C-alpha cells in the first residue's frame, strides 16, 4: 500500500507546481484558487490512487513523467475553470508556466533519446561468456524433459481431485528440482473474480515428474490465500509492488516448493537504468512471497534460497537473449549494418526459452540464435542463461556452424507423420558424442506425448525416433557409430587400450570414405574405425590379433582412434 500511495503522490508534482504558479500570479483570486486546488487535489488523489492500484506503474523517470503530464492535462484546466481564472496567452518563453511545460516536453524527448542510447548499457550489463561447445550429453546426469504441454495435459485431466474444482484453473507450470528429481509444479488458481470472492483461498498445487513420460500428477493440499489469480491486496503482483514500487516485475510470479513441500511464489524484479526502463542485468533480484501470510523477503537473484531454481524469470532470460543478440554493436547497427547481429528463435516452451538442467542439477534457459537475414534456416549458435544468476553463455564453435535451427528441427518432425498430425515441440540442442543433436518431443494434436526424436543438426536426413529418451539415444548413437560420415564424433569419452582377436568384420564404403566395423571374441561391443585413421584396417580378417585405442561408450559401441594389426603393422 505504501508503494501505491508514493506513486500517487509523485504523479501530482507537475500539477502542484503549475497550481502554485496560478496562485502566485492571480493575487485577486488566491482564496478561490486555493479552495479549488485543494478540492481538485483531494479528488484527483483519490481517483489516481485507484488508477495506480489497478495498473501499478513502476516508479521510474519515464513513467513519472507520463503520469505527471496526464494528471496536469486533466486537472489544471479544472483549476482555471473552477476558480474562474482568466487565461492569458503569452509567448511560451515569457510565461513561467510555459517555461515549465517546455522543460517537461524537452525532458520527455531527452528520456526517449536516452532510452535508445541505454540499449548499449543494458547489453554491457549482461554477464556473458563464449565457449566453443557444450559438454557431451550424459543421459544419466543430463535428463531429457517431457514437453510441458504434455505434462499440462495430464494435470488438467487430474483437476477433478481438487476440492471445489469448479472454482479453479491450472496455473503456470514451473520446472524445478525437488528431492533430486526434476518435476513440473503448477498451482491451482482462481478461475474468475467471483470464484475468488467465494473461495477466498486456493487448495494447493500439482507436481508431475518432468523426465518420465509415464508419470502421473500428484495433488498436494496446501491452502494459499495470496496467489497470482487473487484480487485486491491478496494479489502477488500487488504485494510485491507495495514493497518494491521502484522495481520492474518480470513476468508472472511462479510457484516453487521448498524441501518441506511448502509452496512459495517467486517473482523476478529488476532495477532499471537511470532515466529509462531498460533493464540493468547487474540488478536482478527475486521477491519470495509466502502464499499463506503474504510476508515477502527479497534477495539478490544469485543469493536466493537453494530451493529457488528460477530466480531469473523466463521472460527476463528472453529479454537478455534479445539484447545480447541485437545490440552487440549498438542500436544503429541493429537497424542498418546488422554486423554480428543474432536473432533468438521462438521455439522455446516459456517466453521463447526452454528450461533445461545440467548434470549438477542447475537450471538454464536454452535458446538458439539465427541470422537476421530472411530465408536462412541455419543456427549461428545457442545460448544458455543461468536461471539463478542470469549469466549468459554463448556456444558458437565450429561444431555448431551450418547446423539447422530449432524451427528446422520441428519441421522435420512435422513432416514425419503428416497423416497423424503429430508435431515437434521443445527442441533442445545437445552435444551427443561430439555431434550437435536436436532432441525434440513429438506430440499428438491433443498435446499427448508420443515419441522422442534425435536429429543430427547438420544432416536433416539423419533422424531417429523412439518411445523413451534413453532408448532413442542408444539407437541414435548406434546409427552414428555405423555411419561412415559420423564415426569421428567421439569427444567426451576417454580413450581405452584393448587387445584381442577379431571375431567378425564388416567393411562399409561410400564415395568419400571407407569404414570397418568388427567384433572381438568374447565381446558384443561394435568397434568402428575409418581407413583414414588406420589405412591397414581394410585388410582386417577374422582371427587377426589387434591392439587398439578406442573410445568405448556404455551403449555397446566404440570408435577406434589407433589400431595395430599383428603381422601387418
From TrEMBL:
The keyword Transmembrane applies. It comes from the Bacteria. The chain crosses the membrane at residues 6-24, 36-56, 62-83, 95-117. The keyword Transmembrane applies. Keywords: Membrane, Transmembrane, Transmembrane helix. This is Uncharacterized protein. It comes from Halobacillus dabanensis. The lineage of its organism: Bacteria, Bacillati, Bacillota, Bacilli, Bacillales.
Amino acid at each position: 500500500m505504501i508503494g501505491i500511495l508514493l506513486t500517487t503522490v509523485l504523479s501530482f508534482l507537475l500539477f502542484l507546481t503549475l497550481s502554485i504558479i496560478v496562485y502566485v500570479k492571480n493575487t485577486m483570486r488566491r482564496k478561490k484558487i486555493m479552495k479549488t486546488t485543494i478540492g481538485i487535489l483531494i479528488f484527483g488523489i483519490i481517483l489516481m490512487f485507484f488508477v495506480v492500484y489497478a495498473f501499478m506503474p513502476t516508479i521510474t523517470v519515464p513513467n513519472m513523467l507520463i503520469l505527471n503530464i496526464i494528471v496536469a492535462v486533466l486537472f489544471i484546466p479544472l483549476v482555471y475553470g473552477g476558480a474562474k481564472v482568466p487565461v492569458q496567452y503569452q509567448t511560451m518563453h515569457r510565461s513561467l508556466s510555459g517555461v515549465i511545460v517546455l522543460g517537461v516536453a524537452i525532458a520527455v524527448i531527452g528520456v526517449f533519446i536516452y532510452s535508445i542510447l541505454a540499449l548499449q548499457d543494458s547489453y554491457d550489463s549482461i554477464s556473458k561468456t563464449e565457449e566453443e561447445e557444450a559438454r557431451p550429453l550424459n543421459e544419466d546426469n543430463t535428463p531429457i524433459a517431457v514437453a510441458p504441454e504434455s505434462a499440462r495435459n495430464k494435470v488438467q485431466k487430474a483437476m477433478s481431485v481438487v476440492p471445489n474444482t469448479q472454482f479453479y484453473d491450472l496455473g503456470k507450470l514451473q520446472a524445478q528440482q525437488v528431492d533430486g528429481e526434476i518435476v513440473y509444479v503448477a498451482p491451482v488458481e482462481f478461475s474468475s473474480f467471483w470464484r475468488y470472492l467465494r473461495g477466498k483461498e486456493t487448495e494447493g498445487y500439482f507436481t508431475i515428474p518432468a523426465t518420465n513420460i509415464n508419470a502421473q500428477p500428484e495433488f498436494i493440499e496446501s491452502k494459499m490465500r495470496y496467489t497470482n489469480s487473487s484480487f485486491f491486496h491478496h494479489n502477488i503482483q500487488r504485494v510485491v509492488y507495495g514493497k518494491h514500487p521502484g522495481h520492474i516485475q518480470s513476468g508472472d510470479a511462479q510457484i516453487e516448493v521448498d524441501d518441506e513441500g511448502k509452496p512459495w511464489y517467486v517473482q523476478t524484479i529488476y532495477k532499471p537504468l537511470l532515466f529509462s526502463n531498460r533493464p540493468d542485468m547487474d540488478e536482478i533480484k527475486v521477491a519470495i512471497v509466502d502464499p499463506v501470510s503474504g510476508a515477502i523477503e527479497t534477495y539478490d537473484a544469485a543469493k536466493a534460497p537453494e530451493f529457488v531454481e528460477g530466480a531469473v524469470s523466463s521472460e527476463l532470460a528472453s529479454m537478455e537473449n534479445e539484447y545480447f543478440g541485437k545490440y552487440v554493436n549498438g542500436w544503429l547497427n541493429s537497424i542498418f549494418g546488422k554486423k554480428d547481429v543474432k536473432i533468438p528463435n521462438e521455439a522455446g516452451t516459456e517466453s521463447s526459452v526452454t528450461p533445461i538442467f545440467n548434470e549438477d542439477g542447475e537450471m538454464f534457459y536454452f535458446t538458439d540464435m539465427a541470422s537476421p537475414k530472411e530465408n536462412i534456416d541455419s543456427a549461428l549458435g545457442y545460448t544458455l542463461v543461468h536461471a539463478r544468476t542470469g549469466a549468459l553463455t554463448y556456444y558458437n564453435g565450429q561444431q555448431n556452424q551450418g547446423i539447422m535451427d530449432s524451427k528446422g528441427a520441428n519441421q522435420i518432425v512435422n513432416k514425419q507423420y503428416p497423416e497423424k498430425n503429430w508435431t515437434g515441440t521443445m527442441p533442445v540442442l545437445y552435444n551427443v558424442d561430439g555431434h550437435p543433436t536436436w532432441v525434440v518431443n513429438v506430440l499428438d494434436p491433443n498435446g499427448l506425448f508420443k515419441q522422442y526424436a534425435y536429429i543430427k543438426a547438420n544432416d536433416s536426413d539423419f533422424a531417429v525416433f523412439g518411445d523413451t529418451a534413453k532408448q532413442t539415444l542408444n539407437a541414435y548413437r548406434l546409427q552414428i557409430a555405423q555411419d561412415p560420415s559420423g564415426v569421428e564424433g567421439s569427444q567426451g569419452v576417454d580413450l581405452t587400450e584393448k587387445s584381442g582377436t577379431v571375431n567378425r568384420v564388416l567393411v562399409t564404403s561410400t564415395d568419400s570414405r571407407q569404414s570397418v566395423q568388427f567384433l572381438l571374441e568374447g565381446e558384443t561391443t561394435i568397434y568402428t574405425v575409418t581407413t583414414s585413421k588406420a589405412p591397414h584396417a581394410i585388410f582386417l580378417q577374422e582371427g587377426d590379433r589387434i591392439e587398439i585405442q578406442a573410445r568405448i561408450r556404455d551403449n555397446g559401441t566404440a570408435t577406434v582412434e589407433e589400431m595395430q594389426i599383428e603381422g601387418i603393422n
